Amino acid sequence: xxxxxxxxxxxxxxxxxxxxxxxxxxxxxxxxxxxxxxxxxxxxxxxxxxxxxxxxxxxxxxxxxxxxxxxxxxxxxxxxxxxxxxxxxxxxxxxxxxxxxxxxxxxxxxxxxxxxxxxxxxxxxxxxxxxxxxxxxxxxxxxxxxxxxxxxxxxxxxxxxxxxxxxxxxxxxxxxxxxxxxxxxxxxxxxxxxxxxxxxxxxxxxxxxxxxxxxxxxxxxxxxxxxxxxxxxxxxxxxxxxxxxxxxxxxxxxxxxxxxxxxxxxxxxxxxxxxxxxxxxxxxxxxxxxxxxxxxxxxx
Length: 300
Description:
- By secondary structure, the chain is α/β, with parallel strands linked by helices.
- The protein has helices spanning 2-8, 13-25, 41-56, 58-80, 89-92, 111-121, 139-145, 157-173, 199-206, 250-273, 290-295, and strands at residues 83-86, 99-103, 127-131, 150-153, 177-180, 211-224, 230-238, 281-282, 298-299.
């Protein structure tokens, strides 16, 4: 329960109301969390430089990250019995090839699910693409962020072209998996798939990398996790792998691959939740949220 309380992070009412507002306005990739760090360009450069310097010292990073890995393993141990997998055999088709792995972004530690998929099939962990502001995050989540295998992302064209894309290519050519959230912003426990931003698939096309889409289904239980949320069960669905078409431009590939990823998520959502996707907000869209369970409020 203590670990769950840390991950949930206190009162989520303002976050849920931000999600409700963004849905009404059709802004599906907008920030919903509160108090995320804001960095100047100089601060962002320093944060990335410090992280990269720490990561380059392989022995030092290994030793420094051991407590964080222990915490991550504890977190997984607490939800492992409530998690099942569908489609693991699809990863085997990639053999030793690297890939980009995408996932719906609904929890600060939802990378645990991609990590579990790769541990089961490839015996390795993903490199996680994360905004540079996460390197300045405080508290428990910030501590973990600075001690995982990460590819920092800054939305500066020069950085993306000269630093970020070459790093992604390097990792994929080495047979690694790079996890990117095409929905961009975290929407806490939001069940529905959101439109995918094209950048993820442009990176995939430029690296000639397949994309492995994951959609995590969330099922409410009758057990309280904390005062606001029920404990959840999870089903991790590995969807059909998406490949760039060598006869298409990188731009066209990015458009088509983003469309296919989103369509696969929509089809999975409709299949597992047994209803057509729409974007009329209901508090039941927030998995486990007690307000939705008690009032069944919807926003027309």
